[in-house]
Specification:
alpha+beta; three-stranded antiparallel sheet; 5 helices; 14 strands; globular
């Protein structure tokens, strides 16, 4: 797969879930496309350093007692009218709850996508598509009301914690986080309570 993400605007008459399913089936290699701000995004294949770093952060949460840490699940955020606002596959996340029977029913109805309100904290580690994680995905997570977004930006060698999501109107592209903590990689990143302070030093080994 190309090192750059593939992006395609979505035809409004097509259900984004069905379109993403068709793209997955047509791909000659395994992919997991996402739907963000009206556009289908096929992220580049992550390298080993990316995956190792995301796993390291997930491990830190588990070591601090947060058992509902995961990677790989897809989540759907809905509009007020019930339509699909976004379909996202975070690098790692902390859930509010284990999947209930209702969550599993939701996943079945929506063809593999869990409800986004299961997520308490979401995290991304940038690849060549760093602009996606720092722009469209940041706004998408805020619009979905996810309380905390942790971002490791390997391009700028910085780590960020965004909190207090704000959606000022009806347009999800105007959403933002009201609070941000930023440190250089290698420095500890403080998160809102009750989360641990994250050690970002392991990412220095990957640059």
């Amino acid at each position: 797969m190309s090192a750059e993400p593939i992006m395609e605007p979505v035809m409004t008459q097509v259900d984004p879930i069905d379109l993403l399913s068709a793209i997955e089936e047509a791909s000659p290699v395994p992919i997991r496309p996402e739907y963000v701000e009206g556009t289908v995004i096929v992220p580049p294949q992550p390298d080993d350093n990316h995956n190792d770093g995301a796993f390291e952060l997930g491990y830190q949460f588990r070591a601090a007692g947060f058992r509902l840490v995961g990677m790989g699940n897809g989540y759907r955020a809905a509009k007020k009218d019930g339509g699909t606002m976004s379909l996202i596959v975070p690098d790692f996340y902390v859930r509010r709850r284990r999947a209930s029977e209702l969550d599993e029913s939701y996943r079945k109805v929506h063809k593999g996508w869990y409800p986004a309100d299961m997520i308490a904290l979401v995290g991304e580690v940038t690849s060549s598509n760093h602009w996606t994680d720092t722009g469209p995905k940041l706004r998408t997570y805020a619009a979905a009301g996810i309380p905390v977004y942790v971002l490791i930006n390997r391009r700028t060698r910085t780590a960020h914690c965004y909190s207090t999501p704000i959606l000022p109107g009806e347009d999800p592209t105007e959403a933002y986080y009201d609070d941000e903590t930023k440190v250089d990689l290698g420095e500890p990143l403080e998160l809102p309570q009750p989360y641990p302070v994250l050690d970002t030093a392991p990412f220095l080994q990957d640059l």
